[in-house]
Amino acid sequence: MASTGQDSKLFVRNKLADLRAELQGDKKDKDFKKRKVVLKRVVASMTMGQDMSPLYPEVIACLSIEMLDIKKMVYLYLINYARVRPEMVKHAMPGLLADAGDRNALIRALAIRTMSYLAVSEVLKALVDPLHACLRDRDPYVRKTAAICVAKLYMHDRRLVDKEGFVNQVKDLLGDPNPTVVANAVAALTEISERSETIHLRLNTTVASRLVSAMGECSEWGQTYILEALMYYVPEEHADAELLAERIAIRLQHSNSAVVLTTVKVILYLMNYMGSREVVDSMCRKLSPPLVTLLSSGYEVQYVALRNIHLIIQRRPSVLKSDVRVFFCKYNDPIYVKLAKLEIIYRLANENNVEQVLAELKEYASEVDVEFVRKAVRSIGRLAIKIASAADLCITALLALVKTKVNYVVQEAIVVIKDIFRRYPNQYEGIIGTLCENLDALDTPDAKAAMIWILGEYADRIENSDELLDDFLFSFAEEPVEVQLALLTATVKLFIKRPTAGQELVPKVLKWATEDVDNPDLRDRGFIYWRLLSTNPGAASEIVFAEKPEISTESEAMDRGVLDRLLMHTGTLASLYMKEPQTFVRGARAKYLQDSPALDPLAKQSQLDSIPVVRAPTATSSGSGSRPVAAPPTSDSAPPALSPRSTRKESTADELPMHQGEVLLGDDDSEDEDVALNPASNGGATSSKTTTTFATYNNNGTAALPSPLPIDENLDPYASLARMSFEQSAHGGVSAFSQYGYEADQPRRAGVHDQDLL
């Protein structure tokens, strides 16, 4: 404690002249105590942002002092200023090379570690020979440091590492008798594999078994490195995966949360290669206690654990299925922990525990935190949709909350009651009267839109529905678009169900929507309703009141393939964001379950469905074009990472029939036309409901023209109208939509067939 107090006094601004004088003087300081204090002041000033680079001649001269503490500070100085003052590194090279061959193992390791930090070409070339020697050093501390240095050197100069064969030397360290050296070698190879396009780490059963055996003598971080490397092991048989999972399951009892979460990740990964359902269920039961134990850690660790548990229970519902009480919120939990727990409580709710969960949610609805209360009320409504047998209990609870007259509680309750009405039509209309008594409490757009939807949907059962809608219409111009759209649709529904009551409101609302607003969505919907009501009211009734699909909770679940890939990043930022790392980390690569005879067929299919589509060139009649070809993953490397929304289904504008003498648009042109016809596709947003073309070959081995699958496009209305207009124009006809005023000016041909524009 005393030294800490003395060191804190060093963090003051120092004059360069004073420091230089002290470094040059003190010749009588034989034990170098004063020199050591001066260097501490230099490092402290450097830490505070003061430029200490002019002192480099005096600081580098201290390298000749045979004291480890002084060398550490000089090396720290070099690392900090090497980029801005590369000339100082050249002066330090003799001292660095001398230290790399020092008799003291700590100094040897410190020297090569410092050289690996210096991204200067002269230093990297000079590092080659000492690094070769240190990888074969007799001292394990030097070997483990050298293994990490190879990974750092690979970041600076990949060609040099490949040329000198450092990767093979690190690979040989996997058989080192020292477990710490093995752990560092694994960490280095993993880092290189993730950064390299040509080097891919793949462990066989023998190496994986050896790594597991070495874990027992490693530090907690060494165990984490080895467990991460086991993600590169692909079992060829079910028994291999089951045996490895059993051997590492003991790490679930470790005190370090990183070791526990990494072990959970490896076991979840190996479950995809297990053939016995009983073994999978047994492993799921083993995962529950360590995950519950993590909830007794600090709030930050709790949050990380909760976000990972949220993913795990979606993919493996049997994990924690009987432990919902563990996730009940405590009064002193921070809001981010409470919200994470609330989502897990909803996920774990079932018919057996719904009453217990509902009672807990009702307690949460009386809390003081507004955001938490809103989420709790919304969870009650989601429970009613998820569990049909609990709908009556949930409605009763929501009505009790509405009667509290608390504004934000009433608003959230009305929003979820609207969804319950859609899920269970004609069952709970008796509560509409209670809802109508609380219209004054509505001041958020989603609550207003929900209540307006209820008024329009049940306009024939609410006597004064026209008056209530008229009250909302007073502020039509000031309302957000969400509320304006709801008012427009509700007014049309009122007119269809009660023409007399709605005949005054409809013309007024349609006029506002088509003439007085600037939003194109609202204006287009107004025109559609106007033409429907004026030309064929019967068709309008069939369209507006068409049977709608029931709301379900299935849409909330993530795709199985996405879950499998996210669970391969358990314990990382990807699991917190619930996004694959390549979507927010530059240079990150997607991870896929590698194919194997032991891989679960459903997991294999989900991976195949998510394989990106790459373009392979094929010959055309007058040049070279490109067509999408599915790229299956190999056992050695993951598929190329494209846009996260790219799928095996891809729009193929160049699949239209070709005519003699015509050339289809190239990639750039077709992309521009797609953006022009479908603005939603701009910015990389690709439709997921389009088709793909698979390359086919004739008997003679030549590429045959592919046959497109049935087109199922998800374009906006303007794209469809534009397509119809072009098709009519191509045949010399008139667009069927010209009478409605939707036809735009036809583009000039300019030597390109009209169909090529689509």
UniProtKB/TrEMBL annotation:
Chief location of this protein within or outside the cell: membrane
Compartment list: Endomembrane system
Biased composition (Low complexity): 628-644, 680-692
Domain of life (superkingdom): Eukaryota
Keywords: Membrane, Protein transport, Transport
Matching InterPro entries: AP_beta (IPR026739), AP_complex_bsu_1_2_4 (IPR016342), ARM-like (IPR011989), ARM-type_fold (IPR016024), Clathrin/coatomer_adapt-like_N (IPR002553)
Transport found in the keyword field: yes
Domain (Clathrin/coatomer adaptor adaptin-like N-terminal) ranges: 19-535
SUPFAM superfamilies: ARM repeat
GO molecular function, one term: clathrin binding
Functional note: Adaptins are components of the adaptor complexes which link clathrin to receptors in coated vesicles. Clathrin-associated protein complexes are believed to interact with the cytoplasmic tails of membrane proteins, leading to their selection and concentration.
Annotated protein name in UniProt: AP complex subunit beta
Organism: Microbotryum intermedium
